[in-house]
Amino acid sequence: MKREYWIILIVYIAMQLSSLLGIPGMMFLFGYLEINQGLVVPYWLIFSFTIALIIILFLLRSEMKKPGLNTRGSSFSYAATWAILGVFLALFAQGLAANIERLIGVDMGSENTQQIMKIIESFPLAILVSSVIGPILEEIVFRKIIFGSLHKRLNFFFSALISSVIFALAHMEPQHILLYSAMGFTFAFLYVKTKHILVPIFAHVAMNTFVVVIQSVYKDEIEKLMRDAERIQNFIGGFL
User: Fold this and answer.
1) What pTM was estimated for this model as a whole?
2) Which of 9, 49, 77, 239 has the highest local Cβ count within 10 Å?
3) Active-site entry in 63, 111, 138, 223
């Protein structure tokens, strides 16, 4: 793996761990400046993710003109078509995985998503992290670097499996490993299919934005549906 790729992995991990020092530091600074400390988390997320993205794009500046898996990518129209289809494919994979998880007894809903929604409700600009910067970073790290490096040595299935499981575990919700892995497989497929990293980036950004908008606009309806689904599951479970 290229030296730049190792540096990018270190930058990404450092960004994920930076909150351990960054958030307490900003709380002290906000307290000293008498600024609302409820904004510490969204401010730090936007700052750390933006800095990481700038550094990573700088490290990849020599590859910006290259599509990804090789020097010849697919045509623009072909890539654009798959980028749009990829959004629906990702949503389908997510929905299918969520239903399988529900059938095997995994609780519906994601604590990670709920925390993100709370942050966005308190500071709407934080949607840039969840819907734009975050997906871009994840596709560069998990698809371009990790999957891309594995795919040079292994076939698609094993490369996608390993990188998708790592992608899932990185979200710190092992109970939803199937859900995140399904999305990882989908984005890896789009990357291989088009040989353009921008295609899974577009699909990932669009999917996250769609989920955030739906959860924001139909929050009460979604909570009611989840409660009804849990009651039905418990009712059926009583007969088994």
Assistant:
1) 0.83
2) 49
3) 138
